[in-house]
Amino acid sequence: MNFIKSFLRGGPPLAPEYGIYRKVMNQSRQKEFYGEGRFIDSYDGRLDCLTLHMAALMDGSRYLDEQKHGDTVRASNFCQSLFDVMVKDFDTALREEGFTDSGVKRRIKPMVGRFYARLKQFTENLGDEEGLRAAIHDDGAGATDEKFVKSAARYAMKFHEELKSGDIAQIYDGSFNFPAFAN
Q: Exposure string (b/e) for 111-121, b if CB count within 10 Å is 16 or more?
């Protein structure tokens, strides 16, 4: 009987990470991040913009967890869950494009590799505007306009700082807000 109820209401309740991921993904797809000299509206460009947002969120959760609990166990689990939701989203998107199991697997691997590489670059530079500007600019996914790169770096740093100065519950329940993007 539970299966029928679950099926009729659209499946089991989703973990909070699904809503948080959707919130971050929707923000990263805002039109002000894309266009000439900005992130290219392609898989790579969209992934870079998403990763910039995820870097601030994941690092902010680790920072607050360390401050509150003295370790990052809960944040690590949260970040892993967000990552898992993201990979599942990649899988779904590729399948909707008509790729089969082998095609999906072959395409997701480089996407995940790119995510990790960019996550490392962005996270390492969230406290250094020059470094973050270089990381945003340092790729073939667009972001060549200096004014945009500077604005994107300041935006990501502000988002990161607002998360770090907030309450960890706001991250885990998805009630955090994004700063305005000014270009």
A: beebbeebbeb
The pTM of the full predicted model, rounded to 2 decimals, is 0.88
∠ Cα 52 16 173 (to 5°):
80
Beta strands in 25-178 (DSSP E): none
Sequence-distant (≥ 6) Cβ neighbours of residue 79 within 8 angstroms: 58, 61, 62
Model pLDDT for residues 126-149, shown as the tens digit of each residue: 999 999 999 998 666 668 899 999
Residue 94 domain-assigned (yes or no): yes
Domain around 55: 36-172
Determine, yes or no, domain membership for 71.
yes
Per the domain annotation, does 19 fall within a domain? no
